[in-house]
Specification:
By secondary structure, this protein is an alpha+beta fold. It has a domain of 56 residues: Alpha-Beta Plaits (2-Layer Sandwich), CATH 3.30.70.20. 35% of the residues lie in helices and 12% in strands. The protein contains four helices and four strands; from the N terminus they run βαββαβαα. The strands form two sheets. The chain has a two-stranded antiparallel ribbon with strand order 1-4. Strands 2-3 form a two-stranded antiparallel sheet. Strand 2 and strand 3 form a beta hairpin. The longest helix is centred in the last third of the chain and has 15 residues. It is elongated and about 45 Å long. The C terminus is likely disordered. The structure holds iron/sulfur cluster (2 copies).
Length: 97
């Protein structure tokens, strides 16, 4: 995973008892945080979660909970800008253009 957030702070929760194993969360997560095992979703890589909320929004039985936060997304972008050796301001301008 290229983008990482802070360790052990992610709000992602999964209620395996509710999960029907539809697999939707595994399809929408761009970070591959979730996977299926024996027809039930499980969290493969909690710290890879960037709290975008896509899994929770697409789960038909509300088995996933996450508090989406602007701070997390900003941390991801900042990390990316550092790796690209550009400032956040410069990077923001590049994203808009
Ligand atoms: S979207 Fe919900 S019900 Fe479907 S596999 Fe994921 S957690 Fe389970
Ligand atoms: S909140 Fe986003 S990054 Fe985190 S597990 Fe759900 S879809 Fe993946």
């Amino acid at each position: 995973m290229e983008f990482r957030y802070l360790e052990n702070v992610v709000t992602l929760e999964l209620d395996g008892d509710r999960c029907t194993g539809c697999g939707m969360c595994t399809q929408v997560c761009v970070q591959a945080v979730l996977a299926l095992n024996d027809g039930v979703a499980y969290i493969v890589d909690r710290d890879g979660c960037m709290e975008c909320g896509a899994c929770a929004m697409n789960c038909p039985v509300a088995a996933l909970m996450v508090r989406p936060g602007v701070g997390c997304a900003w941390a991801v972008f900042t990390d990316w800008f550092k790796k690209k050796n550009v400032s956040s301001q410069e990077g923001s301008e590049n994203i808009r253009s």
